Amino acid sequence: MATAAKTDTVTVSEENKTTAARAQKDIDQLSMMECDTPVYDDFVKDFLETNAGPGKQPLAKIARKLWPTWPIPEPPSGSKRKTAVPNRTVRVGVMDSSFNPPHYCHAAYMECLGIRELMSAAGTEGQSAWKEAQVLGIDAYLLLLGSENADKELEGATLEQRMRMVDMLATTIACDMAADTWHLWKSKEQFEMTNLHNMAIGMVNTPLFVDKCKAVKEMVRKEWGESSIGKEGNAEKLEVLSYFGMGWDALIRFFDPKYYAHYPREIEDFFASGGRIAYSRRTGFPDDDVDAFFRRTDISDYLQYIFELKLPKRVKHISSTDVRIAVRDSTQSVRDIPPRILEYVNSCQLYRSEIFPR
Q1: Are residues 175 and 112 in contact, defined by beta-carbon separation less than 8 angstroms?
Q2: Bridge-based pairing state of the strands 89-97 and 140-146
Q3: pLDDT number for residue 120
Q4: Whole-angstrom distance, CA of residue 152 vs CA of residue 131
Q5: How many CA atoms are closer than 13 Å to the CA of 29, on its beta-carbon side?
Q6: How large is the greatest C-alpha to C-alpha distance in the chain, in angstroms?
Q7: What is the dihedral of CA 253, 254, 259, 260, to 10 degrees?
Q8: Which Gene3D superfamilies does the annotation name (predicted)?
Q9: In the beta sheet, which residues pair with residue 242?
Q10: Distance of alpha carbon 279 from alpha carbon 299, whole angstroms
């Protein structure tokens, strides 16, 4: 098995060590149902008033860092890992969604990026592709709520409510150390190696992945430049690789010319800006159809930037639509969302009277 390429590193400052240790102490005191989730009404209102609407430049904005040194992957206090961070390239795992509501499959994308081996769609034939499955070595993670969607109108939970639930999902991924059947990591040591604690949540004001990628790149560079590490170098020279988790349907839409004014130039811009795709196949989708999709002439040049995630069977079936139906009908599929999110959904009486297509 190939391993992630080594990068130049620099030592994290004592100031960051102290801040990270304090954050770890706070995390250790959290229980699953007692996490104090912030209210995001003011954040969402300000984001929409300032950054949303026609003519606005693509922008991603952090709402909360669950780890204070984000995107710098400072290890948790007491970790056996060497305290060092990449100096020239930062790999960010991004889960961009409408989160209506967030569920365990969203979380599994993040954990898979940190733990599971990914196979390049180019296979062994790709000029720059890995010859075998590879662990990417993600440095930081980002859950990103979109204020706009290319296909969907806003319904169900409000953006403010979704932002709170995104926070709860991030806490479930980054802070819950209790044994749980959905987690992919098998030990605390393995968890620490993934950098999953280095999590942030935020919003983005554009529905197109090419614009989201550019917005994330600028945001990461900004956060890096404002850190004690970034001040030692030029953040503008920092290479940011953003691995966007996508379902199979999202991958198909990504290469659909109808969403672009200048296809395939905008596709080229996405990958040139450091965009990468980590996709998962739809359950029951025939292998022949997958192979035929990747043989398309407008896709073949980008296969080295596309990776397959092997999601666990226990989460592959989950969708937000099915969760909303389960909440409405009080079926067992409500177990597909973390308990703290279900508690919030129930307290707000969300999804009770919605009509969904059968």
Answers
A1: no
A2: parallel
A3: 72
A4: 38
A5: 7
A6: 57
A7: -160
A8: HUPs (3.40.50.620)
A9: 92, 275
A10: 14
Q: Helix (H, G, I), strand (E, B), or coil: what is residue 26?
A: helix
Under DSSP, the state recorded for 345 is H
Instruction: Say how far apart CA 246 and CA 97 lie, in whole Å.
Output: 9
Identify the burial level of 40 via C-beta atoms within 10 angstroms of its C-beta, where 0-12 means exposed, 13-18 middle and 19 or more buried. buried
What pLDDT does residue 153 have? 64
The per-residue pLDDT for 343 is: 93
- Domains in the chain, ordered, with CATH? 35-322 (3.40.50.620)
pLDDT tens digit string along 267-292? 999 999 999 999 998 777 778 888 88
Instruction: Give the residue ranges of the chain where pLDDT is below 50.
Output: 1-12, 24-34, 83, 124-133, 357-358
**Two tokens, residue 301:** 């040049």
**Rounded distance between C-alpha atoms, residue 138 and residue 91, angstroms:** 5
Looking at residue 290, what is its pLDDT?
Answer: 86
Bridge partners of residue 84, in order along the sequence:
11
pLDDT at 232: 54
Whole-number Å distance between alpha carbons of 269 and 119: 23
Which residue type does 240 have?
V
C-alpha 91/C-alpha 115 separation (Å) is 14
Q: Which of 232, 210, 215 is nearest to 302 (CA)?
A: 210
What residues contact 111, with CB distance under 8 A and at least 6 apart? 173, 183, 184, 185, 194, 196
Selection from 198, 191, 210 nearest residue 305 by Cα? 210
Residue pair 130/120 in contact by the 8 Å Cβ criterion: yes
